């Protein structure tokens, strides 16, 4: 990271730090019920307990006491991440070619757009009963719901990217005598890449929202399941620890996607600057 990146990171950390300080002060002064809103230190302790697997040994009894810390976080994170990756791959893998066809062909757009506009406003959560009915319990309904959540952002942005290619590029290519296939591959598709990558970024964010909801209903592990379990026992600290874990994981993926976008769009940034 260069000096500018460090400066931006430090600036972005000011508000979260202030919120945590005020939160801790409110807890220490007794302004909030610790059962309803535990202090940041209590949440941090629970987060480490949730994260680190550790066995305890009793020398006097010469026996293992069992798991002192649960170590569930790593397993839950990997389970949630697996569902997000598979569901997003399915959703984006279907949306990308369909979006390219609908954007490039007015006939395909006229045939499919009315159906897409009817289905798009329906939230993936509304499909939960059908997902369980069709796929039962386990990963399959969760992957189905995540694929639905990722499908439409990628589809809509891909269509918009292909249909909004600057006309000057198309006219220049036609003047050079390129055929339709070359026009699509060499002109329309590269010009649509910024829109497509924006759709991918939005789709991944939507996939994270859907995976948490689906894990609360259809599976017995993952970050969403663990938050629901903590709610049943009124473990507020574990609920917040799980929420923070989701936020950190989402932040890491979003930063990675942003860096990938900047790398793939270096030519685009160069033209703009």
Question: Any overview of this molecule?
Answer:
The chain starts with a helix and ends with a helix. The chain folds into two domains: 3-69, no CATH class; 72-272, MetI-like (MetI-like fold), CATH 1.10.3720. It has a two-stranded antiparallel sheet with strand order 1-2. The chain is mainly alpha-helical and 273 residues long. It has helices at 3-28, 40-51, 72-104, 106-119, 128-135, 139-163, 167-175, 180-215, 223-232, 236-264, 266-272, and strands spanning 54-58, 63-69. The protein has eleven helices and two strands, in the order ααββααααααααα. Helix 3 packs across helix 4 (106-119), helix 5 (128-135) packs across helix 6 and helix 9 packs antiparallel against helix 10 (236-264). 77% of the residues lie in helices and 4% in strands. The radius of gyration is 24 Å and the shape is globular. Strand 1 and strand 2 form a beta hairpin.
Low-confidence stretches: 55-69
The number of helical elements comes to 11
Strand order of the largest sheet: 1-2
Q: Briefly note the structural class of the backbone.
A: mainly alpha
Q: Could you state the order of secondary-structure elements as H and E?
A: HHEEHHHHHHHHH
Question: What shape does the CA trace take?
Answer: globular
List how many beta strands DSSP finds.
2
Main traits of this protein?
273 residues; mainly alpha; MetI-like fold; 2 domains; two-stranded antiparallel sheet; 2 strands; globular
């Amino acid at each position: 990271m260069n000096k500018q990146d460090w400066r931006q990171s430090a600036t972005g950390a000011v508000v979260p730090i202030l919120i945590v300080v005020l939160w801790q002060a409110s807890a220490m002064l007794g302004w909030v019920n610790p059962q309803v809103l535990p202090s940041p230190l209590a949440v941090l302790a629970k987060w480490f307990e949730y994260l680190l697997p550790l066995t305890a040994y009793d020398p006097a009894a010469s026996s293992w006491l069992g798991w002192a810390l649960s170590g569930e976080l790593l397993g839950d994170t990997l389970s949630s991440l697996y569902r997000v990756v598979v569901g997003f791959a399915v959703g984006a893998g279907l949306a990308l070619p369909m979006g390219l066809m609908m954007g490039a062909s007015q006939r395909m757009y006229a045939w499919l757009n009315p159906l897409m506009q009817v289905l798009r406003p329906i939230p993936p959560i509304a499909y939960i009963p059908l997902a369980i009915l069709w796929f039962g319990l386990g990963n399959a309904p969760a992957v189905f719901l995540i694929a639905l959540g990722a499908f439409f952002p990628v589809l809509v942005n891909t269509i918009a990217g292909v249909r909004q290619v600057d006309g000057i590029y198309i006219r220049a290519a036609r003047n050079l005598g390129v055929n339709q296939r070359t026009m699509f591959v060499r002109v329309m598709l590269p010009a649509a890449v910024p829109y497509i990558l924006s759709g991918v970024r939005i789709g991944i964010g939507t996939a994270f929202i859907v995976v948490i909801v689906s894990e609360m209903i259809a599976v017995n592990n993952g970050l969403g399941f663990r938050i629901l379990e903590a709610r049943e026992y009124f473990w507020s600290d574990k609920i917040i620890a799980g929420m923070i874990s989701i936020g950190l994981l989402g932040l890491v993926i979003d930063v990675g996607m942003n860096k990938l976008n900047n790398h793939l769009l270096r030519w685009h940034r160069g033209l703009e600057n």
